[in-house]
Prior knowledge:
This protein is an alpha/beta fold and 498 residues long.
Amino acid sequence: MTRLSVILNSLLVKKVEGFSDFKVKGITYNSRKVKPGYIFACLSGTRAHGSEFISHAVSRGAGAVLTDRKDTEEVEGAVKIIVPEVREAMAVISSKYYGFPSTKLRLIGITGTNGKTTTAHLIDTLLSEAGKKTGLIGTVKYKLGEKTLPVLATTPESPDLQDIFFYMLKEGVSHVSMEVSSHALDLKRVSGCDFDIGVLTNISDDHLDFHQTFDRYLRAKGKLFSWLGALPEKEGRPKIAVINRDDRNFKYISDQVGAQKITYGIKHEADVMARNIVIKDIGVSFYVESPWGEGDINLKLTGLFSVYNALAALTVAFIEGLSWETSKKILEKITGVPGRFEKIEMGQDFTVVVDYAHTPDGLDNVLRTIKEFAEKRVITVFGCGGDRDRAKRVPMGEVAGKFSDYCFLTTDNPRTESSRQIFQDVEPGLLTNKKIEEFEICQDRRKAISKAIHMAEAGDVVLIAGKGHENYQIFKDRTITFDDREVAREMLKKKLQK
């Protein structure tokens, strides 16, 4: 535990009212999680400002309140700390409170529109199988050494994140692979994190409901790489950026980097290259050229996107001291990541794939891969999330229609938005490549999956896209248990029993 006076020394610009020193026992932004001796941070949310919950937090024992509102009433029995920006201050004091844990870890941040989850898992597996004790923070799971925690967000808020790092250190973790979302970068969740390696997978349109414009989204991604050059070396090891040379935003990201750069790619000459790529339904093979070694790789993962993810992971493995032979051996054993091009096998004579693809670029990548090996028809089940970027709905329809023989347009996570409105937004995209009789709008996702599977014949491929590993579906008034993989297995079982 650290005293409040010590923590406050970390904040250069602040106004403190009603100061009394005490041992801080925790930091939270949720008034329901406040305990005696906690600092309560008043975050600005989409529906309310945290200052509205100060009384509740103090009633639960909050010793101090962190706020950006000067007009907040005097807090009886608690210290009021007024700062220009709560999120930034919260990140600073969280890192201080937990003793700057990321400075004692090899921290690898992976950002990009698509491929973050798979790349993070590949890096984690390469390092752990090579004998390093690893941690993983991302969309599918938080892994702390041998333990797994429930996911709070792709990248947690700063107090949760620093708490996780602190626990990882106690568990003896040396290397952490972490997905870094654009939200996390813009909302200062990773401020105070000492990254050693930053990895860029790719950047295409996404989250414009939050960022408003692509330029703002791109700038958010660039922050991770601009920070690298400002951070000191750990144990004499330089900071390194690992960048996809083929990404259309390569120059912008590269210009942000103040540290050493290593590139990987397929189309443009890069430091780590893949050549002679052969894509099959059972996997993808390619030849790797790199400063650390070269040779053939035979992945059990398929698709061109898997080659990019593997190159990024290999590059990190090489930087961390793994040999070519060790890296190749480990990489070739990896069978997949939950909800990422995950095949559902129940003995049927056609292929069923569940994938998280929820952007036009992601869906394009997956469907192009399927077209490489599909013997007959491609049947796609997809939708678009509600309360999210409407601009990507027409392109989603265009991509699905272009690469599919038949489509089922259905619900994803409609949230508070009308499913009918979402369908109306997507349908014009479908109609650019499909006749009205070549797709069906089916509001019930379970029914859509059932229809797709019962339509499928020998040699067909059914793609169920959008939700991947998720085991829920969010509606305006409820969240239900729903897992595309389990529903697909249920429908396959019914079909095979007939």
